[in-house]
Amino acid sequence: MRELLPVLIVVGILAALAVFGPFIAPNPPNAIDIPNRLAPPGGEYLLGTDAMGRCILSRLLHGARWSLGLAFLVSTIGLIAGSVLGLVAAMGGRTVDWAVMRVTDIFLAFPDLVAAVVVAGVLGAGTSSLIFALTVTGWMRYARVARGIGLGLATRGHVVQAQLAGLSGPAIARWHYVPALVPSLTVVWTGMLARAILGISALGFLGFGVQPPTPEWGTMLLDARVHIRSTPLQMIWPGMAVVFCVLAINITGDVLRDALTDRDAPA
């Protein structure tokens, strides 16, 4: 697993920024300094200021807690909900399996972002609506993976023996299904974490996400779009933050997948 070390370091840095970023921010994120509005990088404001004179670096560091923290929350809720539904489908018999998979197919028929925008638009802009919209549109891949692995385990000897021994369904799921699901679902979770970051930023840019003046990368892009010609760095900084985080997490997922494939490959 030595090849995992570099990407895990990067992801650790991202996690540290999300947790400790506000403590190392050089200025308050919402402090207005009108005389220095749209200031270029340098001096007191290392990345410049926005149209209200607020420090962009400070807002990026505070925004990491919202963008990365909400993405972690959304992807984890989706992981739990999707895994439970997938196991219910795998262990509940043919009728339950058919019903759960048809619901899953219906949700998968709609593009994630479009469906999230519709849900957030119906519920109204705000953090809670954002979380609900992205969770409702992001659990299906976990369910399909959990269901597929669960069906493969159903005929394994140790599972059949546990059933014959009278072990309850939840106990069988805990001791036999969950350990088998963890590696594959971890890889899926990293991909969905990256998608959640993009979704949060996209909904923020469209005005359906975290509301101003709270600093979040998508809302920072929304605020900066008016000045894209005169001061393009306002959009470049939060855009680079989103791209870097998504790229780092996707690379981590690829490395995890390769490591798990090599481990499971026959010698």
The CATH topology is what?
MetI-like fold
The pLDDT mean sits at: 86
Count of beta strands: 0
Q: CATH superfamily, called what?
A: MetI-like
Count of the domains: 1
State the assembly state of the protein chains: single chain
Supply the key terms.
267 residues; mainly alpha; MetI-like fold; 10 helices
Describe the model:
- The model has no long low-confidence stretch (mean pLDDT 86).
- It contains ten helices and no strands.
- The longest helix is centred in the C-terminal third of the chain and has 38 residues, at 169-206.
- The protein has a single domain, classed as MetI-like fold (Orthogonal Bundle).
- It is elongated and about 75 Å long.
- By secondary structure, the protein is an all-alpha fold.
- Helix 1 (5-24) packs antiparallel against helix 10 (233-264).
Short structural summary:
The chain is an all-alpha fold and 267 residues long. Helix content is 72%, strand content 0%.
What topology does this entry show?
Layout: H1 5-24, H2 56-91, H3 94-108, H4 112-123, H5 127-136, H6 140-153, H7 157-164, H8 169-206, H9 217-224, H10 233-264
